[in-house]
Specification:
This protein is of the alpha/beta class. 41% of the residues lie in helices and 18% in strands. The strands form 2 sheets. A 5-stranded mixed beta sheet has the order 2-1-3-10-4. Strands 7-6-8-5-9 form a 5-stranded mixed beta sheet. It starts with a strand and ends in an 8-residue tail after the last helix.
Length: 292
């Protein structure tokens, strides 16, 4: 049996659900690979590049900033699963001018995407918004501060179901990032310097993840059961509503990429980082080599 280290670099179903299903449904074993899942959320790029990585937003940023020649072998979604939650009375992203907002660090994928979304609303993230930088987690502190009024809005990921949380507290979901910015993301990436993309272990992981994507689309009950593992604060009905709105409708069916979306995404991220786009979408996203 082949072996491989697979690191996730963010938490929540958008990052972990596909590999979780592949593990729980024994797809890795079926494909003849033993996968050691590693928490790489705080690892630097140099440590990450020695194995396979989930989380293509971060590898796009890393390739642009650090020159590490990451390549993506499959993708799970085009729409970043992050939202802006705001207290009652704030009805648009533009209304965040002068407000206190918790955001992810700007050098991270969601932090960069937040800045892009704010700029689209006509806001300079460095001047027009009082940003409070916080590393992502379960967003419990963000919810507490929204409740007490010490912040006005928070960028949250899918370790919670944002619409259910908003309904519970009388808050607003100002934006779903995927409605404002698309980037092929969350899949399997490797650095060919250390890991051959055609290595049998890597290809076995990709095949297992494609099988997991099929479960997501063809077996809602199984997917919701696994999704509840990540969304334990929510009822089954809330989890199913989140599945319908943001998983079944947003995840790909075949892991392949639309290179036109990739071109626009790389250009937008490079512009936000203030660096040149030194590689093409076709060089980064190599999903055309996917075989069932």
């Amino acid at each position: 049996m082949h072996t491989i280290d697979l690191a996730y670099v963010g938490r929540g179903p958008h990052e972990e659900l596909v590999n979780y299903i592949a593990d729980q449904e024994d797809f890795y074993a079926d494909e003849g690979v033993h996968v050691a899942v590693r928490d790489g959320c705080t690892w630097d790029a140099q440590r990450l590049r020695h194995g396979a990585v989930i989380g293509l937003g971060r590898t796009v940023l890393s390739r642009l900033r650090d020159g590490i020649p990451w390549v993506a072998l499959n993708i799970n979604t085009y729409r970043p699963l992050f939202w802006i939650l705001a207290r009652s009375g704030i009805t648009s992203v533009a209304d965040l001018a002068g407000r206190r907002v918790t955001v992810h660090p700007p050098h991270t994928g969601p932090g960069c995407f937040t800045r892009i979304v704010l700029r689209q609303a006509g806001l300079d993230p460095d001047r027009d918004v009082q940003t409070i930088v916080r590393w992502p987690g379960d967003f419990g502190m963000d919810l507490r501060q929204l409740e007490e009024g010490s912040i006005d809005a928070a960028v949250v990921g899918d370790t919670l179901a944002p619409e259910a949380v908003a309904a519970e507290h009388g808050w607003q979901v100002l934006a779903f990032f995927g409605d404002h910015f698309q980037i092929p993301t969350v899949g399997v990436a490797v650095d060919p310097t250390y890991t051959d993309p055609d290595d049998p272990a890597v290809q076995a992981v990709v095949r297992a993840h494609l099988r997991a994507l099929k479960v997501i689309h063809d077996d809602p009950d199984t997917t919701v059961r696994h999704l509840q593992t990540f969304l334990g604060r929510h009822t089954e009905d809330e989890v199913r509503a989140h599945y319908d709105a943001y998983v079944a409708s947003q995840f790909t069916t075949d892991g392949r990429v639309d290179l036109a979306v990739g071109v626009d995404a790389i250009s937008a991220v490079a512009a936000e980082l203030g660096v040149p786009a030194t590689f093409t979408a076709a060089e980064f996203y190599r999903t055309a080599t996917i075989t069932p």
